[in-house]
Design goal:
By secondary structure, the protein is mostly beta strands. Helix content is 5%, strand content 62%. The chain is elongated. The model has no long low-confidence stretch (mean pLDDT 96).
């Protein structure tokens, strides 16, 4: 974190190696345990098309750990790390829209959460003292939650209709990561990794109430509440990263990295399938107990440039700093406050302390606030046209490692 995220060629503990490049496990000579915790603070604002300003302040705590051991000519590692952890908890007035253009559910919670927890088993092989190969397989747990007024986007009968919706799903999947580490010079390391695409089908329950929409359409006598079994398919992108670590002087380490994240082929749309509906009136309107909807996302590929510097003050203390630029992958046309992963500029700093076999590393990361304005929304019904969303996030992390 404190080196701007540039760890593909510079990871030194099992947690960083499983996250950045499993080939760097070969650099860890003995058994090692790493435990980390991080706290995030988000500050965001949303301006509706009516000019109302809403502020969101949100915080959360994450944890992770990994252990590595040498086994003959290879190094093995096992760890758990949150790959994605995004949560938005807004409360603002639902803009008029829906099938009649005037449906509003008033001031409502607008909340979403997506978590991907990766349990990884990694291995590295030092082919020569200058070249190592590594791979890891990850068991992914994905949890999704949405509570908000929801506008159907593509369902033939219900398109543009609005309902209150509370949806929760979870499920499992797998992905893999492959890496290489080359040391052409004693002071220079080059690393490259490829992370595979993962498609996860999650299942759960969806409940809601469409009373306002039905009443505005002259169907106020119809039953308005509903329950469905829900299935949401999330696709998480493939990624290629390449980086270097240069020991410029005995005390100064410089790092750099470039990432390509293939969001365009992953977050094109979000398929939602609802089955076993319990509302006979709604089933009769749709002509089935099941329905499917696709929420347009149309994210772009993301390109990330990272750089960091580490300076050893003495044998115990080290200072670090870094910077990253990550192109915003979210198009303005499909932006909502619940999908605003729009930060581009990131600055980082850190401090490390080592004594004997114990190391403590503190890191700070500031995702500088970024704003994005939506002119004409591509989402059905147009509630998010002429809106502006701004988000900034700060992170504090602490990692403890112990060599056995």
């Amino acid at each position: 974190m404190s080196l701007g995220g540039s760890g593909t060629a510079a990871a030194r503990d099992p947690l960083d190696a499983l996250f950045a490049n499993p080939a760097t496990l070969s650099e860890i000579r003995g058994p090692m345990l790493a435990v980390a915790t991080g706290t995030g603070f988000a500050h965001a604002t949303f301006r509706s098309r009516d000019g109302d300003d809403t502020v969101m302040n949100e915080d959360g705590i994450l944890g992770s750990f990994a252990v590595s051991v040498p086994v003959g000519p290879v190094r093995l590692a096992l760890g758990v790390n949150p790959d994605i952890a995004l949560r938005d908890r807004w409360r603002y007035r639902d803009a008029p829209g829906g099938a009649d253009g005037a449906t509003s559910y008033g001031v409502q919670p607008q909340e979403s959460e997506i978590v991907v927890l990766r349990t990884a088993l990694g291995v590295s092989w030092e082919v020569t003292p200058q070249f190592s190969l590594g791979a890891s397989v990850g068991l992914l747990y994905n949890r999704n939650q949405l509570q908000a007024p929801y506008v159907f986007q593509s369902q033939a009968v219900l398109r543009t209709a609005k309902t209150l919706l509370n949806l929760e799903t979870d499920g499992w999947g797998v992905n893999g990561q492959f890496g290489a580490l080359w040391k052409p010079l004693p002071t220079l390391q080059l690393g490259v990794t490829y992370t595979t695409r993962a498609s996860l089908s999650t299942e759960g329950r969806a409940t809601g109430n469409a009373d306002v929409q039905l009443a505005n359409l002259g169907l106020g006598t119809a039953r308005s509440d509903f329950t469905y079994d829900a299935e949401v398919t999330n696709v998480f992108p493939q990624q290629i990263s390449a980086g270097l670590a240069w020991q410029a002087t005995p005390k100064l380490l410089l790092t750099a990295q470039f990432d390509w994240i293939n969001w365009a082929d992953a977050f094109e749309s979000l398929p939602v399938r609802l089955t076993n509906g319990n509302n006979r009136d709604l089933n009769g309107l749709v002509g089935s107990t099941s329905l499917s909807d696709n929420v347009p996302l149309d994210w772009r590929d993301q390109y990330v440039g990272r750089a960091g510097a580490e300076y050893a003050l003495n044998e115990h203390w080290t200072v670090r700093a870094g910077y990253a630029y990550a192109r915003n992958p979210v198009p303005a046309a499909t932006l909502t406050p619940l999908t605003a992963a729009i930060n581009e500029h990131i600055v980082t700093a850190g401090l490390g302390f080592r004594t004997g076999r114990l190391a403590l590393d503190f890191a700070y990361q500031w995702q500088i606030p970024n704003s994005l304005t939506t002119g004409t929304s591509a989402l059905a019904s147009g509630e998010y046209s002429d809106t502006e969303t701004s988000v900034g996030v700060q992170w504090i992390g602490l990692t403890a490692t112990f060599g056995f």
